[in-house]
Amino acid sequence: MHSLKALRFMRFARSCSGSAHTATPLESHASRTAEVIDGKSIAREIEGEIRAAIDEIFTRGGRRPHLTAVLVGDNEGSSVYVKNKIQAAKRTGIAADCIHLPSSTTQAVLLDIVQRLNNSDSVDGILVQLPLPSHIEESVICNAVLPSKDVDGFHAVQMGRLCLNMASLAPCTPLAIVEILQRIGMSTYGKHVLVCGRSTIVGLPLSIMLGSSRDYVTVWLSTAGGGHISKVRRK
């Protein structure tokens, strides 16, 4: 469990680093003061915490957690993303490797590889990089990963537990957003929150996480092209 938590927070730290890197006030369209969040600084802080926790486990005789990423095809964006994840893992003391498969890989072959990783005692976390080639059903692959090794938090079990407000491995980008708000001391109590997009990776789980809090927050969930976004934003 400690190993999986370390893997999850490592991924989460990488999501934080996508935020802006300065912390200066800006004027919004509604003449309200907005704050640019220093996500890179938060990511470095979290990576340091993870590194210290893993080093302590190792000095007590435990082994370092092991993450295996699976990349299918040669999508340039996916390749860069996986490379960054591997580098982040190594910075925090996590052992990490990548299985790179050709785009012609069949769904059956990919399922066999996922099952082998599920059964491996040396692998603590599995990350199948999305998107997958069109001939492979992403939902089938995501749900083939053991929930206990599902670093992405895409398994139906994880999403179900999230909806029921139970302990779960939430997708890392929504987790990063919620954690950033907590770390900078920004309360959502009594506020209206507009979430643009309904993807099962970001928008939907984020709306669930915010809506299930005890902050009495009102969550507006909309598609990116929704015509009522500007009306909600003015609230």
TrEMBL record:
Molecular function GO terms recorded: methenyltetrahydrofolate cyclohydrolase activity; methylenetetrahydrofolate dehydrogenase (NAD+) activity; methylenetetrahydrofolate dehydrogenase (NADP+) activity
Gene3D superfamilies: Leucine Dehydrogenase, chain A, domain 1, NAD(P)-binding Rossmann-like Domain
Superkingdom of origin organism: Eukaryota
Listed InterPro entries: Aminoacid_DH-like_N_sf, NAD(P)-bd_dom_sf, THF_DH/CycHdrlase, THF_DH/CycHdrlase_cat_dom, THF_DH/CycHdrlase_NAD-bd_dom
Gene Ontology biological process terms in this record: tetrahydrofolate interconversion
GO CC annotations on file: mitochondrion
Catalytic activity entry: (6R)-5,10-methenyltetrahydrofolate + H2O = (6R)-10-formyltetrahydrofolate + H(+)
Coiled coil: none
Domain (Tetrahydrofolate dehydrogenase/cyclohydrolase catalytic) ranges: 37-152
Domain Tetrahydrofolate dehydrogenase/cyclohydrolase NAD(P)-binding: from-to ranges: 171-220
A Pfam family recorded for this sequence: THF_DHG_CYH_C
UniProt keyword list: Hydrolase, Multifunctional enzyme, One-carbon metabolism, Oxidoreductase
E.C. number: 3.5.4.9
Enzyme class: hydrolase
Oligomeric and partner information: Homodimer.
Protein name: methenyltetrahydrofolate cyclohydrolase
